[in-house]
User: Fold this.
Amino acid sequence: MFRRSVAILLAILLLPVGIVPRRVSAQPPTPDTATPPARRPPELVEFVEAPYPEAERASGRSAAVVLSITIAADGSVEDASVVESAGPAFDEAALAAARRFRFSPAIVDGVPTRSRIQYRYDFVLRVEAPTTAELAGVVRNGDSRQPIEGVRVTLDDGRATTTDAEGRFEFTEVTPGAHTFTIEGERLTTSSLEETLVAGERLEASYSVFLEAPPAEGELTDDIEIVVQAPPVRTESVSTQVTAEDARRVAGTGGEVLLVVQNLPGVARQAAGSGALVVWGASPEDTNVYIDGVRVPRLYHDGGLRSVVASDFIRSVELVPGGYGATYGRGLGGLVVVGTRDADANAGVHGSVGFDLYDASASLRFRTRRDDAAEARGDTYGAFGARIGYVGNLLAATVSSDIEDYFPLPNYIDAQARVGVVLRPGETVDATVLVSSDRISRNVQSPDPSRSTRETRDLLFHRTYLRYRRDLGDGSVAQAVLFAGTDAQGLESDFGTIRTSLNVDSVSFGLRASYRSRVASWLTLEGGLDAEAVYARVTREGALSAPPREGDIRVFGQPPPDQIASDRYNTTTIGVAPYVEADLALAADRLHVVAGLRVDPYARSQDRANPGATNLPTGLFRQDIMAEPRIAVRYAPSERFATNLAFGSYRQAPRATDLSSTFGNPRLPTSRAYHGVLGFNIRPTTAFGLELTTFLTQSYDIAMRSRAESPLATQALLPTGRGRAYGAQLLARLDQTEASRFYGWVSYSLVKSERRDAPGAGWRPFDYDQRHVLTALGGVRLPLDFDVGMRARLATGYPRTEVVDAYYDARRDLYQPIFGQHNQLRIPIFFQLDLRVSKTFDIGETELELSLDLQNITNRRNAEELIYDERYTERGKISGLPFIPVLGLRWSL
Amino acid sequence: MSRSLFALALVLFVGCTPEFDYDVSRVDGPRVLAVRAVPPEVGPNGQTTLIALYVDESGTLTEGPLDFTLCTARKPLAELGPVARACLDPASSSQVRFGQGVLAATATVPANACSLFGPSPPPPKPNEPAGRPVDPDLTSGFYQPALVFDQENGEPSLAPIRINCGLGAVSQPVALEWNRRSRRNANPIIDSLTIVREEGEVVVPIDGTGTPPMLTQGETITLRVSYADCPLAGEDVCGDAICGNDETLADCPADCTAPVLGCGGAESYIAYDSDFGAIVARRESMRVAWYGTRGDFAEARTGRASEALEPYSDNTLFAPTESGELVIWVVLRDDRGGTAFRGYRFTVP
Assistant:
């Protein structure tokens, strides 16, 4: 900003021209002089500033006008004229100002005397010195990236404003320096932020906030979100987000929110009846699942129809296929982080009941408020949920008994309970219990006792954890989760007289604590500790190859070998991993560098490291330590485009079941992996986005079966395996907006995942290699509260090893297959089209939703597995789900 | 939703499996149906004769182009089949041929069989660690791979010989108990095959020993194969010509004086339970495989589980709808590698 410059009296020419031809001082007169001096030049006592001429402002030039000023004996300006012109505008301004000057008159012989002086008036156009600053910003939903209107922003000088429809707010004329301002609004936890403003500058920033659960009187939509993030750069990384409302509407999922994860890029299609989550070609066991930071053994119940935690209990789930930060570890593959619902914003009670073909469920949550409490201090809150699956029992009760011949019937139960208290605003502590139980059994009778089969699989796990969280208001967050849990996993199988038994009972304890602080506007630091101890008791009996493991060459339904062994042992594994992560925001927040380091010490003891019948020492203790660097870089030159790059080092302890001295190898080391990710994100409009992510993972020291004819007694498994997966995923997505009733996305994944069993061996397709997965889904809201959605999926089949011949085993009276090249055959391509229609009824203050999920409406007989005749001369397929209508009902309060 | 609608939906929920045309019971060409070892269990350096049941659509063949070999290749752990893949190659250097172009041949079990395929530590090989012995089967048995190759089509049949190797690395009391109580397996014996009708049972003569019984076209009959009714564990009776696990030469010389005989049915035997580190008593289950040149069986395989006491097994035969002769074979197997077989002929006028 330009301001008129003050024309400094450069010199009052002290030489009166003509009358007083001498220089005169420009100093003000000395008042109350006791004795007037005999001679004294006139002195300027009242200066008048001349405005910088508007006509010359555009030029911005400096100028000087030399004036001749005649001063009367009383000190007033009698006359003024231009001696040296700087132009008409400057001349006029200088004359006008000079004529209003006041002088002390010149003194000659002690008498005030008329005099004349020359005065140079300088004009300088200069920038006005800044004295204030401006603060502006956009408040967005941290999950959906949509701007939030109506958020109240209060500055510490008392001023307040509200965000507009685009989420924008602005404060002008703000005193420079550090300022604190608060953001508050409906379903929004009041947050206090701090920014430092510089005089004369305008600070513009984007603030992401997360909404709480809706108030009781609000819509029945909730704030569950599915976040697929690759890589997990914490600030605006390449990510895909799906609201729970949209997820529930996805056809083919039966309204189960978390099943939508299976339709996201990078995730392989699950085989029917499988709950395995295959991400970026990694083994399902290599992808860890965390709920509120507590590791759980699985995300889905058996059958893959439901998740182990009810949808109403979940706030968000984040799927990171790879390249994640230092916060998590102990896994070679991806990461699933489920966040449970926070306390409701308002006091009240809410609940829901629902049932469909698969199961029945109910949930209840509440928040109480003390009338005498200030703010939310002392509020208590809680949530309870339960679900019981009955599809297996119904099938067994209503359909012929041979239904179990080829299709295991799932039965599952899960329950959740939470009670918490708000210590003060932004500070909560709560206790949670999660329980999940799965049981699959089948019993196939045959007149031949060697062909009667019975199989039972159980998994019962529970987690109890105490969670503390404090939001310090300045962006700093401290949180800790202390947990304990038990897992009871069992497999009992009888194939004729051949028994297979594998039971793992484990107890785990852990602590996950972290503190995140915004050290500066450009630096956020997080440090934490991820500690976990697991005691596992393993009992196993049966053939070495039963149950089969990845890499085994076999066919579906093949009887297990009848050479059996047994083992039982206990292992204790302890890992205490500190980590630190720094998020550097550079280039005006356009460049983020997230650098992390995780140090993962690892100790394991085992009470039986050699077969029991030998005289060798029985105990074993192993330990090691490894530093795992992680880094992610995201560059977003505009809101329309971003690119990111990530790299990380990961490790994973061997599974307890692999540590058997008989069936495995108690001296297996930890496996290692490296992930590299490069991604691009283009968002032409706020509603439409395009994401492309490429990746490469390399795994080392994977446990594989020994290829030796006579391996050592404790080396049935060797860490000789290597793995690699690479590919790309593309996601084009249209979000639902106020202006559009449509939503949907198209995702395509190209993944090549391979294994090498031993040094010198060739690379082969990984058992879970699913080369192409294409998913298109969408929905539209119709009048009268109707909602219609569809989903189409196309996927490559998993690889299988072809049977090229067979021979007769006269002792066991069965044919044994002779295999061709490993995993060079594939299950045929899968295609399925699903449709979902729902209608919502408002009943008083409650809501009833009826839904009809029409799965596989083309009734295509997709192959789920390859099967052979008894002599292996003919190959057929086991087809999966035919057309199946799933009617659902959900009533919410 | 009503129960019927639920049932409909649930039926639809079930996946489908293919129907294959192959009928494992139908004999429509030369084929090895079974191989019987006599005796069925021998120790290292012991001799046993392998007898193949080789048939075609005309009946049991008395001559056959079969080659007999013993395979000395150990199976790598990574191979999940019962034998090493090298054993399926008749030209492999791992083959020791002991019969050529015959239906029966006598093999001598190698002296190192218990090291290669039993509980003794295996001999070390160059560039490979030595150590892990072979795991036993559920009956604590070990087997020397033996192959029967059909010269005409090259198809191999695996006919492993049960070898008596003891238990390997177990405690001394267990080893002593094993040595005292274990009895070698005996082949089962088919006592009879009968046609079960309401008016009574008719014994079917063994093929070539009598007049074939007549069946009407399309007749449905029940066939019953019977075998010896063996004493249960702990119910040994001295003087029954069976030396039970709890009988010794001292307390029952009548039964336990060599040669010790076994029982031709579901024998009781002892096995080592490695999970508990103890000797346990078990009883064999019996399996019956049914084959025929014509007609159909209701079940290709029948049998009796170990806990079932009946010394017979039934099956239903649907006689052919056209006249002619029908040959069926019954193969009886126990859990320890013992085998018996018989052929029977019927006439359908």
